[in-house]
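RECORD TYPE: protein structure
NAME: Metal-dependent hydrolase
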Amino acid sequence: MDSVSQLALGAALSVTVMGRRMPVWQSALLGAVCGTLPDLDVFFDRGDPVSNMTMHRTESHALFYLTLVSPLISWLAGILFRLRGQVIRLWLAVWLALVTHPLLDTMTVYGTQFGLPFTDYPYAIGSVFIIDPLYTLPLLVGVIAALILRNRRGLRWNHGGLLLSCVYLLWSVFAQQQATDAARQAIARNYINSERVLVTPTSLNTLVWRVVVMTPGTYGEGFYSLLAPDQPLTFTFYPRGEALYAAHRDNPYVARMAWFTHGFFRMQEQNGHLWLSDLRMGEEPYYTFTFDLGPLNAPNGEVLPTRINSVRPPVSEMIGRVWQQLKAE
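PREDICTED:
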């Protein structure tokens, strides 16, 4: 999720755990910092853009490592805030703010390797968009109310915001399942030879869902609105570059992306260069992660990839597209 959501979640959890045992601003600050810490890995360069993408949310998001460092952070926080007699509760506040960061990230489609060092599998539920105001706003309102009121009423506001945000995540999983059922019915109805199916929410909501279906030679994209369930879900198909993949599957960057995206990727030739796109994030023809792997005839893996600057539609166009999809027009 975005940094604001992680900051707000960490602050809300810390305020909930500490209650009135320490000043609200201190517990909120502690939780906000701990909720943000795992994402500091973005400042480490892994050597190339593909590695930077696929190795984000790795060790710094691992539940095991975060648990190991939590006693040290809570001890330092106790010294900083001069808090005595609350060792276990302070540790719990720190630990929850740390470990809920990767767990919340797992709700997005990106991929979080929180099982390290035992497994490097990139877990991704994909039931919420990376930025979703309906998740974040209750947390912010609750924390701000607690900071302003500084009494039991403020703490109740914080509890309420935290509860609403959790309910929203549960709703997103339910909504995703509804969209997934509709997608599978449409695939069966149209006799589509699907290899795998991805269902994720469109920008800033959980009412309109994007469906990507991978076939042996193409990928299809369609949209499903929970507000118009009777509208047929149709797909537009595009080439996925199977011949290019067959020729370059030994390229370590191609292999890495194929693994990380769970097979939801596209390869294409652009001006004599090999381009690789992650189909999970974005919508046709706008994709967040597209990489230039160099000339087609270059030896596999010997050219460092470069990231193609993603072209995003204007905000007005994005809102218009979501609105049309919402009505299933």
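COMMENT: The chain has two domains: 3-172, 192-308.
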